[in-house]
TrEMBL record, chain A:
GO biological process terms, semicolon-separated: Gram-negative-bacterium-type cell outer membrane assembly
The protein's name: Lipopolysaccharide export system protein LptC
Keyword Glycoprotein: no
Family listed: Belongs to the LptC family.
Transmembrane segments: 7-25
One Pfam family named in its UniProt record: LptC
Subunit-level organization: Component of the lipopolysaccharide transport and assembly complex. Interacts with LptA and the LptBFG transporter complex.
Biological function: Involved in the assembly of lipopolysaccharide (LPS). Required for the translocation of LPS from the inner membrane to the outer membrane. Facilitates the transfer of LPS from the inner membrane to the periplasmic protein LptA. Could be a docking site for LptA.
Recorded GO CC terms: outer membrane-bounded periplasmic space; plasma membrane
GO terms for MF: glycolipid transfer activity; lipopolysaccharide transmembrane transporter activity
Domain of life: Bacteria
InterPro entries, alphabetized: LipoPS_assembly_LptC-rel, LPS_export_LptC, LptC
Principal cellular location given in the protein's record: membrane
Protein source organism: Aquisalimonas asiatica
Amino acid sequence: MLPDKRWTFRIVAVILLVAVGWWVLDEETHEPIEADPEEAEQRPDYFMETFTLNATSEEGTPTYRVTSPRMEHFQGQDLWLMEHPEVTYFADSGEPWHLRAERGRATNNVENVHLQGEVEIRRAGGSDNLPANVDTSEVHLEPERRYAETDRHAVYWRDGARIEGVGVRAYLDRELVELLSEVRGRYDAPE
Amino acid sequence: EPIDLDADNAEIDNARGVSVYTGNVVLTRGPRRITGDRMTVHLREDDAGDQALDHVVVEGEPAVYNQRGGEDRRPIEAEAPRMEYYASGPERVILLEGARLTQGRNTFTGERIEYEVAADRVHARGEPETGRRVQIRLFPDDEDNGDDE
């Protein structure tokens, strides 16, 4: 009886060998399954928590800073999505400007930043400047130029004055805020 | 009363605290109304330490000042290429570069006319250098408290 068992074992071993061999060969010629490009773009390739980016001029002085409790990067579009971002523009003189919102998108190596949702632009008063506040719903920034613009309704306000309009261009390095249309200003009567 | 300005656009200089309104600019404060092409708002620190509106330089072709009449006040209408409106200290409007003002039926013309709002008083002045004189036409039965220099 013995020989039958040995034969059976040999046959099974050969079949196994052939099967494994075929599987290995097939694996090599078989292309790895590519992630669906669109799907890849939806998924972050990395994310950071308590994210801070500090940009400086050639002389090493700070020009702007971007912070966010959570930032996700999407390789496909070189896109950063940020929660509750805050962008700080450092001024040549006077207090810095703080630009905050609920959501932010940065592209092009943070050359373009788009803030959305309860956008607040704040500047404390200082010896060289007046306080300033601007509220709007959406703003596009070019941090390198310390520039901000929107085509939405916006309100510029501080103690005793409130000026609203539709569309803003803010050259914050030159402390200039332009309201582009439908402007209405209200000033309290002086005491 | 607060001071309202409406315009096509505005430029705010946050360092100097100066705002320039351009395009169909209208300033209103109670019964007073000024229209012009360009208004520059200058601020000053008021007694409470806040930045308050000090004066507005108005330019137009011409700039026009209107004030509705009231129980004891005659309506005022004035125009000039350039005006300066002072919000306090006292509230007044100074018409420059050749002005014309009517107070009820009385009319004043001159190089410079100043109208004090609270006192309802007109001061008109000529310009000796150019010989431009003040002209006043009064209607005696109308009470007049304007004077000329």
